[in-house]
Design brief:
This protein is an all-beta fold and about 140 residues long. It has no helices and twelve strands. The strands form three sheets. It has a four-stranded mixed beta sheet, with no helix packed on it. A four-stranded antiparallel beta sheet has the order 4-5-6-8, with no helix packed on it. A four-stranded antiparallel beta sheet has the order 9-10-11-12, with no helix packed on it. A hairpin with a 4-residue loop joins strand 10 and strand 11. The two termini are about 30 Å apart.
Length: about 140
């Protein structure tokens, strides 16, 4: 959507308008995300709907950014936690053909896909209820 995304040491994804570098009031965070090193990666999906962030503790978080920056739309997302690395820092995230690859200091590369056909039985179909699985 023409926005700039940055992950900070405060474990939040910050969103800026490129022309002015003005910060948008987006709240993209997860209570289990810890980005306290130089190698905290962030990548946007090809479709523009998802942002993936790697962190310490063997986890990555996927945020639904489809409505960020749109007037009148919610600019917050708790994100979906992906756990697949043995407490090692996730130092790389990359998207290709609808899949997300994460690599970590445990020497593993994981490939994740959004399992949209599997939804939470309780409640709606918000971003936090999407199920991501290792492909």
């Amino acid at each position: 959507g023409g926005l700039l995304y940055a992950i900070g040491c405060d474990s939040r994804v910050h969103v800026y308008e490129p022309g002015t570098l003005g910060a948008l009031p987006a709240q993209l965070m997860h209570d289990k995300l810890s980005t306290n090193s130089f190698y905290a990666p962030l990548a946007l999906s090809d479709c523009g709907r998802w942002a993936a962030v790697g962190g310490a503790g063997g986890s990555a978080v996927v945020f639904d950014i489809e409505n960020v920056g749109r007037p009148g739309m919610s600019a917050s997302s708790e994100g979906v936690l992906l756990r697949g690395h043995d407490e090692a820092e996730v130092t790389g995230v990359s998207w290709a053909q609808g899949a997300l690859a994460t690599c970590a200091d445990d020497g593993r590369v994981r490939v994740w896909r959004d399992c949209t056909e599997r939804r939470s039985i309780n409640g709606g179909v918000g971003a936090a209820e999407l199920i991501w699985a290792i492909a």
